[in-house]
Structures are given as C-alpha cells and as structure tokens.
Amino acid sequence: MIPSTWQVLLFLFKRWIVMVPKIFQSSRQKAFKKSETSELQKGLVSQYANERIDAVKRTIAAMTVGKDVSSLFPDVLKNLATRDVTLKKLVYLYLINYAKTHPDLCILAVNTFVKDSEEYNPTVRALAIRTMGCIRVTKIIDYLAYPLRKALKDDHPYVRKTAAVCVVKMFELDPQYCSSNGFISQLQALVTDPNPVVVANAVRSLAEIHDFEPEKGYFNLVYTMTDRLMVALSECNEWGRIAILSALSRFRTSDVKEAEFICERVIPQFQHANSGVVLAAVKVIMTHISLFSEDFKNFLYKKMAPPLLTLLSADPEIQYVALRNINLILQKQPNIFEKGTRVFFCKYNDPLYIKLEKLKIITMLACEENINETLSELRTYVSEVDLEFVKQTIKSLGDVALKVPSIINDCIAVFLEIFEVNISYMVQEVTVVMETLLRQYPKKIRLLLPYLEKVLEELGDPRARASMAWILGEFCDSVRDSTKLLSEMVSTIGQEDLQVQLALLTATVKLNLTLRNGEPEALLRKVFSYSTNVSSNQDLRDRAFMYQRLMTSENIDKAASIVCSQKPTVEHNTNLPKLLLDGLLSEMTTLASVYHRLPESFIGQGKFGADAIQQRAVEELNVEEENAQTSIEKGANVENLLDLDFGGQGTPTSSEAAPSPSLSNNVLDLFMSVDSPAPSNQLSAAGHTRSATEDLLGL
Amino acid sequence: MISGVFFFNLKGDNLICRTFRHDLKSSITDVIRVHVLSNPELRTPIATFGSTSYTYVRNEDLYIVTVAKGNPNIILLLEFLERLVEVLSRYFEKVNESTIKENFAFIYELLDEMIDFGIVQMTEPHAISRALTINPVKKKESSILSMKRSTSSQNVTSHSIDHSKSVPWRRAGIRYRRNTIYLDIVERLNLLISSTGNVLRSDISGSVHMRALLSGMPECQFGISDKLDFKLKHNENRQKSSRSGNDSTASEGITLEDCQFHQCVKLPEFENERKISFIPPDGEVELMSYRSHENVHIPFRIHPIVEQLSKQKLIYRISIRSSYPHKLSTSLSLRIPVPDNVAKASPRVNRGKSGYKPSENIISWNIPNYLGDMDLILYAEVELSNTTNQQHWSRPPISLDFNIQMFASSGLKVKYLHVQEPSNSKYKSIKWVRYSTRAGTCEIRF
Q1: Where is the secretion signal located (chain A) (predicted)?
Q2: Which of A137, A678, B189, B357 sits at 20 to 30 Å (Cα–Cα) from A545?
Q3: For residue A490, what are the domain limits?
Q4: Which stretches of A516-537 are DSSP H helices?
C-alpha cells in the first residue's frame, strides 16, 4: 500500500530529524579535543583582563553549541571576583547554565554572591540577587535569605525590582520557607513603592505567587491599592503597564463608583503603541462593564472600538490574537463597530488563519444595512484559490442567508453560479449548505431543479451525499426525477457511509409516503432489506424496523403526517453559551481567549472545582468551536503516541466526533410532530432522538 | 510566563536556547523542531501540546520561539517577539543566522536584560543599550546606539541609575552641539478597490518617526491638524471672546480614527486636552501612529479592463490617472497578475517600462518620475496555451507600490512643535518636518 509506506517513511524521517543533531553533537564533542579545553583554560587564568574576557566568551560559545565545558568550572569561577561588570556578567551566564546540571559546584560561588550583594554599584548588587535566584538548589535558600531581605529594602529601585522577582524564584524553591519568613509580606509592601517599575514587578510577582496557591490569598487587591497602581500605570514602561492592567482586571467590585473610577483612568491606555497594553486595558473595562448604566457602557464601547481596529494593522500574529478577542467582544456587544464590516475585508496576501478569522467576523456582523457589500465581498472570496477558505466562505454565505432573509435569492444565485462552474469540492460544500437553506426556505427548491442531476454526479463527500439524499426525499414531489435519482444512490448503498445510509432510508420512506403511486415501493424494499439484513449497524437497523412498522400500520396518512411534517425554522446561532463567554471575557489576552476554551479544558493543571466542571459541561455544548480545535487535539494525540512527556500532566482533551448536523436533522424530521421544538444544538438533539424513539416504539 | 526563548534556523537547528524557568525538559528543542516548526498541520503561529504553548515568528532565516506553560498572556508573548526582532535589528544590519551565531554572548546578555525569570522587564532599545556591556560583532555602523554606547560604556555604574526612574527611556546629561529634531511623517495608504471600481476600503496608517538629537531633558509638545483638537480650541475661543464661530477653521482639520503613542507621551494629557507632550528618548523612535479613513486623498485612479476574448486570449487595458499636485513626482510600480498558462504576453505602455515576468506570473509596469495630473495607459494582449487541466484562475488583484514625497494623503499637517528645557530658558533647537505617502496594501480587483 502506498500510503502506509509513505507514512513509515515520514515517521523515519521525523525520527531522523530528531537524531541528526544528536549525532553531530556527539561527533562534535569528540572533535572538541583536550587541546581546546586547555587552551581555554589558559585563557581563563591569564593575567590580562581582555584575554580572560575573550576566553569566557569562547567558553560560552562552546557551551551554546552543546559542548561540555563543565570541566572548566573552577577556572571560570576564579574570574567571578572581578570588578569588571562585563566579565562578571559573562561568568554569571556560565553559572546559570550549569546551575541546573551541576548545582553543587554553584554553591562554591555563593560567597562571591553574598559579597557582591554588598557592593556599592547597584548593578552588581542586582546582578548578584538575580543570578543567585536562578540556582536551583534548596541549600541556596539559606545563603539567599539575608541578601534578599536586604535587597527588598534597598535604596536603589533597580535592586528592589530585581529582588521582587527573586521572591518568586525563592517561592518556587520552597513556598513554605518563603511565606513563613515574611518575604511575601515584604513583597506586598512593595506594591506601594514610590517607583513605578518596582510596583509593576511586585504586582507581577504577587500575581504569580497567588496563582500557585490561590486559597492562601496572597494577592487580594483592595480598592485603596488601586490609587497607587493608577499612578504607577501612567509612569512605568509598557510591560509594567500590562502587569498593572492585568492586576486591575483581577479586581472585583460591586461598587459602581469604584469601577467607574478605574475604567476612566484606564481609558488613556487605549492610545498606547503596544497592543498588549491596549488589549489589557480593554480587558479591565470588560470585567467591569456589566455594572454600568447603558450610557456609560456605550461610551466605553465607543472608546474601545477604534483601538481594537487599529490592532488589525499589526503583524499577522498579533492580528490573529486581536481577531479572536474581537470575536468575543462582538458576541457580548454586537454593534460595537458601527462603521460596518469593511475593515475586516480580507487582503489577498493575508495568511489563511487571518482570512478565516476575518470571515467569521464578517459573518457575525452581517445585517440588513451592510448585506449588499457583505454579499459582494463573499462572492469574490468564492473565486479564491485556497480550498479551505472557499469552503468556509460558502458556509458563511449560508449563515448570512439564514440571518438576513432578504438576500436569499442573491445568495442562491451565487450558489447556482458555482453549480455552473462545477468544481466538485465547491459543489459539495454548496449542497451541504443548501440543505439547511432549503429547510428554512423550502420554496426555493424550484431554482435548484435544473441542476440536481448534474450535481449528483459530482458528489463524493458523504456529508454532501447525505444532504443530497435529504433534499431528494424532502422535495420528492417537486423534483421530477426524484425516484430515478434516489434509486441511483440506493444502488450503491452498501458502500456508503452510515450517515448517507440513514439519509437514504429516510428519503425513500418520504418518497413512498408522498408519492404513493406504488412505483418506488421496490426501492423501499431494497433499502429495508439492506438495512435490516445486511447492515450490522444498530442505528440503521432499528430505524429501518421503526419505519417498517410505521409503514405497515393501518393508517398510512398518520405515518405521512409524522414523517413529512412541517419543519420548525432553523435557528442561526453561532455564539458561545453565555456562561462560557463571560468566562472567556475575563481571560482576554491569554491563550484561552485565542482558543475560545477555558484554561482548564486545555491545560489541565488539576484543580477541578465544582465550578470548573460545570463550566466544562457548558463548553462541551459548544460544537462550533470543537471543529476549530481539532488541530490542537490532533497535536495532543501525536504527543501521546510518541510518548513525549514534557513535565505537564496534560489531561487529554475530549474529542468526540460530533455527529453530522444533517443526520440529526433527518432523524428529527421524523419526530417533529411527536416531540416539539427545534434543538439548538446537537447534544440535546441526541437526547431528543432517544426519548422520541422510545415513544414511537411504544406506538 | 515565558519559560524559554529559542532561536532556530530554517533547518531546525537550535542556535540559542535560553530557559528562564526550570519546568522544561531538555528534549524541548526536539519537540519544537518536530512538532512546531515542521508540523504541516499547524496553521497558526500558536501551538499547544499538553500544558505547554509555543509561539513563534519568522524573521529572515530564523525562527524565534517562546515557550510558556499554562495559560499565558499570548499577546504579550507575540508583542515581545516583535520587540526582540526590533531591538536586534537596531544592532545588526541583518538579523539572521550568521549574526546570531557570531553574537552568542551578546544575545544571552540581551535576553537577560529583557527578561528576568520569564517576566519581561524592558525592551526599550535605548535603555537596554545602556545596560549591556558586551559589544556586538557585525553591528550597524550608522546605528545611533553604537555611537552612544562608546560614550556610555565607561560609566557602567551610572547606567542603572536612570533605568528605574520615571523617565526610563532617557539618560541624563546628554549633550549635543546643535539641538536638532526631525519629524518624519510617513503615511501608508491601504486601498481595496472592487472589480466594479468601488472603493471598498481606503485608509491611512500613518506614523510619525522622530529623531531627536537634543541636549538635556527637553520637554516637547507638538500639534497636528486634528479635527477634535480644533473643535476643542474653537470652543474655548468662543467662550473667551464670545465671537461667533468661524466654521472654516473647524473644517480644516482631519479626523483621526485612532492614534497610538510611544510610551514617552503623556497619555492622560492627550485624553483630556488633546495635547501631545513628551520628553523624547534620545535618537530614533516611532513617536506616534494613527489611522484615518475619512477624506483620504487617493493619489491614483486606476481603471483596469480585462477581457477574456476566447479561451486562448486575454486583453488587458489599464489606465491610470495621477491626482496629486502637478509639481510632485513619484515612482510607481504595478504588478498585474496573469494566468499560469501564458504563452505570450506583450504589453505596450506610453510611459515607463513594462514586461512579462513568467516566474511570478505577472506583468510589471514601472513608471519613474510620474508627474501629477497625467494619464497613462497599458495595453496588453495575452495569449494562453492549451492546458489539460482547465484550472479555475482566481484573478489575484493588481497591486501598487509607490512613494510620494512631500505629500500626505490624509491631509495631516504638523501645526507646531515646541521644544523647551526647563533648566535653560535660552534653549534653541532646529526642527525639520518631512511628509511622504507610501503604498501599504493597495489592491485593485478586476
């Protein structure tokens, strides 16, 4: 088999790619002979400072390419006692690199660190504190405690801000020691420091420590603190601003005055050049916005709209994150961009992932006012090259037509054009969309009639074939050749996918009930005999038996009224469930907002409270996003297969294959008169089906 | 936050590996190489496996990857990567594999100054340049940073003093013989025109680049012809002298959709009084960027007519009219896409040079010294060869590239630029302002 050979080759190739550098590395190591080491060694103990610097640099270069230079440790260490900052930094770099593998050796350097932390030069003091924290040996804590405590109270802000970060390092090593010896309370005191950079670092460190052990409440922002944060916000650099804004978005209050105060002071940050700052500011506002009056809400939305659009002129990577976040905000506030959809129109050279996001937003924004330009824009996308993009565009066209009924004719005209051009993947996608559209607008079938036969030849994709079967069954009285076309499809029923088989079954039943001229009866018998005798699938068999029972009952009219009943309208709703949406809005700027999944669902770091599980259940209802995420899940699977564990206890994400919409629709047709309203999602659809099945069998 | 920053070349060899946290295994570089960089299924620049997320950007022949655990602030990671490239490009002519390889130590030091324990500390090029001690190899000769470096590296002790001050982007005690400040207003015009000639989008993303060579701690203020600003002043005037409003001044300004400032600009002052005041960093920065989409002056009108005469023949008739003032001149180049299966294409033009480029499937048309108010036309007959697969041709849009000096498409003007030094009342400075309009993404569908 060709594919399997190819897969094996691919696998070998991947392995090879992994191996190659290792092979080179080992050969390189051999080549890196003693002579070189001794040469470096000579340089390291040279009496000239510049020779020593050069030697350390070369040692680091050797270290970077993967050579083992740990034997030089004592010689490098000798250079630590220098007053030259350049040399000191280089030696520290070397130390940090070997801190992981040779922790015991690093302890040797401890005395120098302690001495350095008393140095007059603040850079050296900060450097010592910073480097010391990077050495991951529990023993270091004893040496670190005293200098760190001093550094936290240092006169110089540069040292204090470095010390603030160092507290997290210490906390990671030994949380118990860190909290019981007052380091955390010292850190908490730094939040009110006069220097903005120190404040920012303290806030960041506290937030991180808080997330380690949320129940201890190390970082509970109170309103009185926000005043100081606000001052620091406008003074510190961009990364500090992001930190402070993130902290502010953790702040929860029910007092409208407090929230208003915060939001008003945050608004100027929209004008910052760093997109991280802008989005963080938006996040602060979004966390408080539900408290405000309509007027103030509108004012805030009006303020945030232009900066959000500005993010679209950034690099594609940032654009992508911005678009995903805009998507969330739009679900909360659909009319935030009054000026319409034009800014979201795709550029020809946009990467695919941007185009798909823009397309989603264009679809969301479609309404009566902008429908004409939306339609003509979507129409141009249909002729683009990328397969995936064209397919999505066709889907969007369908969604738009459901949303804005007035354009259904224009929309179908576009589809008919596609039928004319007759490119199979496009035709297939259109057929799938058509099924939904025809449910909503059954009268439009007559526009389609001339094409059906030609279209049927092009369909290979089971989804499209199932849709076609549904169309033929549903409109068997308007389609002249419906019997002929269906029997064509039935003739290959044995090779079809389950969803097509199910659709065919329903279609032939409908055909018999509607026409009742005896002609298609042979067809029905054929389908029944296949489904009940040949097929091993439970669903198909049970359903066939059910239909059979129904058809043999006395009152055929009753059966017809059950099977061919009036269909409820299709509800167009691609929005996330409200609970999930609110959860995601408070996760803006983070990875969760990009995936539109709550963090627990994809990082799985334990801690599943009752809330989390409930939210997960809600999230599973969200079928739309499931599809978008398959790529990630695939990635997760690959990881499991190759057994590459990198530390995280990643719980496998749930990846149930969602049943195709057309399938459940068909089943539901059956029970519409028995069981009422249209399900808005598939999970409940499955539930409905089951209960309704029981009802019917009891007939 | 950031667990590590990695540099890879296109082959997937690890060049730089700087981990800030200890939560990554040593196989991490292999994971990145196999699952992130050479994963054909990955379409976005973000990947998550288990609890680890990878974010990467590409620059020349380099991939720069950040790795983070849990649910990181993703926009911060991306913004950081962008800044990292920006800072590197301040030092090096080209940020590519060979420069990285020659500057291991420098880049490690740089990363250590930018990030501490995975927390981004600073990315301001000027501030960083003062904190660094290692001299990069192959640096940019003209770089203002390297100039400053040689003077500041002697007093390393002082560099951190101003690092954490309230003006972290400017060092005290800068001295120039002649105080000069340059403002360079560059507007990029984004244009999207539908096949029927409708302007679907026309907007400007402009930026104000500043090069400040000023002594001391000057305070600058500058004003632009922004409509809101005008209204504000206008109202004030009205209240003061109670004279009837003169509406012509109000209509003079342009409407800025949105503007963004460098961190040196005092944002609350802008929010309340529409005042752009700042203490400039030394050297070059992008002071401000803005968007505008009202009353955009589109410098060219283009009417493409492309007719498919038969299966083998296409006719292009493209006419352009320049609509900027007559005395300005520009160089314009057009890229006109043609199908893949072109057998022969012979464009004719009445100015400039044109030719068919088979490798890119385009007809190019370059017009140097294109004066204002001038009509030009390109006529081309394109013959197509017969191919077996009659693939659908997607008709990519025509794209433009141009650069017009002393012309601002949005109509923006600098109204004033004040430079003052609080400690020196006799402070003098020379100011230069320059405008230009360039092509952003200009696409004309046909």
Answers
A1: 1-21
A2: A678
A3: 473-564
A4: 521-529
Q: Apex CA A592: angle with CA A590 and CA A598, to 5°?
A: 140
User: Contact A181/A170 with Cβ under 8 angstroms?
Assistant: no
pLDDT tens digits, one per residue of B369-389: 888 888 889 999 888 887 755
In a domain, A530, yes or no: yes
CB pairs A-B closer than 8 Å: 295
For B23-64, the DSSP string reads -S-TTHHHHIIIIIIT-TT--SSEEEETTEEEEEEEETTEEE
pLDDT at A671: 40
Per-residue confidence at A135, pLDDT binned at 50, 70, 90?
confident
Distance (Å) from the C-alpha of residue B241 to the closest C-alpha of chain A? 31
For B288, nearest residue in chain A (alpha carbons): A273
**Which tokens belong to B117?**
């324990």
Q: What does the pLDDT read at residue A667?
A: 40
Task: Tell which of A272, A348, A379, A587 to mutate to test the B interface (max B CBs under 10 Å).
Answer: A348
Tokens representing B134? Answer: 């290692």
Mean predicted confidence (pLDDT) in A120-141: 84
Number of domains in chain A: 1
Query: pLDDT tens, B326-381?
Result: 888 888 899 999 888 888 888 888 888 888 988 888 899 998 888 888 888 999 98
Determine, for residues A268 and B73 on separate chains, whether the beta-carbon distance falls below 8 Å.
no
> Which chain B residues are closer than 8 Å to A594 by Cβ?
46, 74
Give the nearest partner residue to B260 out of A265, A272, A353, using CB atoms: A272
Contacts of A90 in chain B (CB under 8 A): 105, 109, 134
Indicate the pTM of the whole model: 0.78
pLDDT at A397: 92
Q: Percent of chain A beyond pLDDT 90?
A: 9
In order of their start, the domains of chain B are 4-165 (3.30.450.60), 180-297+406-444 (2.60.40.1170), 300-401 (2.60.40.1170)
Q: Which residue of B has its CA nearest to A161?
A: B164
Tell whether A286 is covered by a domain. no
pLDDT of residue A640: 41
Mutate to test the interface with A, among B79, B99, B255 (most CBs of A within 10 A): B79
pLDDT bracket for residue A8 (50, 70, 90) = low
**Chain B residues with CB-CB distance to A320 below 8 A:** 44-46
Over the stretch A183-216, which tens digit does the pLDDT of each residue have? 888 888 888 888 888 999 999 898 888 888 777 7
The beta-carbon neighbor of A646 closest among B25, B74, B257 is B25
A418 lies in a domain? no
Confidence at residue A354, expressed as pLDDT on a 0 to 100 scale:
93
CB B437 within 8 A of CB B299: yes
For residue A157, give how far its alpha carbon lies from the nearest alpha carbon of chain B (Å). 6
Q: Which residue, A329, A358, A335, is CA-closest to A596?
A: A329
A380-408: pLDDT as tens digits = 898 888 889 999 999 999 999 988 888 88
End-to-end Cα distance, chain B: 47
Provide the token pair at A339: 């000026």
pLDDT bracket for residue A655 (50, 70, 90): very low
- Predicted local confidence at residue A355, as pLDDT: 93
Instruction: Identify the CA nearest to B278 among candidates B185, B208, B231.
Output: B208
Distance from CA of A115 to the nearest CA of B (A): 17
Interface test with B, best of A140, A230, A274 (most B CBs within 10 A): A274
**Residues from chain A contacting residue B203 (CB–CB below 8 Å):** 343
pLDDT of residue A4: 62
The sign one gets for the Cα dihedral A45, A51, A52, A57 is negative
Inter-CA distances, A8 with A2, A14, B35, Å: 10, 10, 17
